[in-house]
Write a structure and sequence with these properties.
Keywords: Membrane, Transmembrane, Transmembrane helix. This protein has two domains: 67 residues, Zincin-like; 113 residues, no CATH class. 70% of the residues lie in helices and 7% in strands. Strands 1-3-2 form a three-stranded mixed sheet. A hairpin with a 4-residue loop joins strand 2 and strand 3. The structure holds zinc ion. The site of zinc ion has 4 residues, from helix 3 and helix 5.
């Protein structure tokens, strides 16, 4: 099916934003689901759902700019993903090798250290998840900053406030965007070229 006018508009916005942010234009997939737009670092692809496509044009612009902002973080996202994968593999490999090479199969010599490993794994997962949440919050703020640099601080703030009425938006993102708008009013900075 050929792309609709809105889909073509989104593709053009992505190409322009990517040029402005000096990043290769990510691929785009239009989906039916209502999960909201998202950037997939693994495939360098932005997913845009029907609900997002139906947004008023000024909102759609900011949402697209935000997602292209994520494309600039691809290396960081892939590095985080690789670290998580390697840490998990290493953590699970250690007990497997230890138990496979253990001569003693007495339940106390296998079960007790095994439970210890499980407890350590759960504790480390919690710490890693908290670390991951902090990292993704920082990436969200960075993508917002890039959207504001492309579209302007005031329109980006208006869009984020409008989006907050539709979906949960963290207070930190709203606070940072308000601060950015305030700073821009005091000291207007030029937008990054592209639009
Ligand atoms: Zn985001």
């Amino acid at each position: 099916m050929p792309p609709s006018a809105t889909e073509r508009h989104v593709l053009a916005l992505i190409a322009t934003d990517a040029a402005a942010l000096h990043v290769a234009p990510p691929r785009v997939r239009f989906v039916e689901s209502c999960g909201g737009p998202c950037y997939e670092a693994l495939f360098n692809r932005i997913e845009i759902d029907r609900e997002t496509l139906a947004l008023p044009e000024p909102l759609l612009r900011i949402v697209v700019a935000h997602e292209v902002g994520h494309a600039t973080q691809r290396a960081t996202m892939l590095f985080d993903f690789a670290c998580t994968l390697m840490a998990t593999t290493a953590f699970l490999t250690i007990p497997c090798i230890a138990f496979a090479t253990a001569a003693d199969i007495d339940i106390w010599h296998v079960g007790v250290p095994g439970l210890g490993f499980m407890a350590a794994f759960i504790a480390c997962s919690k710490i890693w998840r908290a670390h991951g949440a902090k990292r993704s919050a920082a990436l969200e703020l960075d993508a917002d900053a890039k959207a504001a640099a492309i579209c302007g601080a005031a329109p980006a703030l208006a869009a984020l406030e409008a989006m907050a009425t539709r979906a949960p938006i963290s207070a930190a993102r709203l606070h940072a965007m308000r601060a950015r708008d305030e700073a821009h009013r005091r000291n207007p900075a030029p937008r990054v070229s592209g639009r």
